[in-house]
Model the fold of this input.
Amino acid sequence: MSETLTLSAETRDRAGKGASRALRREGRVPAVIYGNNQEPKSIHVGERELQKLLNTGHFFNSVVMIEGERTLPKDVAFHPVSDRPLHVDFLRISEHATVTVEVPIVFTDEEEAPGIKRGGVLNIVRHELELVVDAAEIPDQVEISLKGVEVGDSIHISAVQLPKGAKPAITDRDFTIATVVAPSALKSSEGDTQTEAAEGEAEGE
Done:
């Protein structure tokens, strides 16, 4: 279960680029809370406090309590050069709202994957899963076991045991999460062997 984060904020009285720049000079980040059939609320939060939450690695799949309001982070705009946060959007939610979140994938049991033991390489197609879950039951991560996986095998969403109550946001196809591929060195040596065999056959003719 993802923990609930807390962020203190103050109401933003003035809008516009000039006001936003002034706030950033003071170490504040403009933000907005919207949704749940209520008026959007313009606020500003401390840049250091926000950065601390961003550094947890699970900011986007955590409920963030802001001055008594339950929210879900939806978007953070960053400065293209300094990478400092410039603006944040928070979606206002009820306690048991159904929400769509990106949850990190963690692969386990690599030592029990014959394909990887033989030199196969895990090719990760998706590092996160987009899940539809209860806001009070957002998972920290989704674990996928590699036990028994061979070279050439693919792991699809249908084979993944999702946390209780969670459903994939993509429902129209059995999408691939990862594959185990042969290392390029193995592929090239196989190719050389095939080439030599073909040349031998040609000479025999």
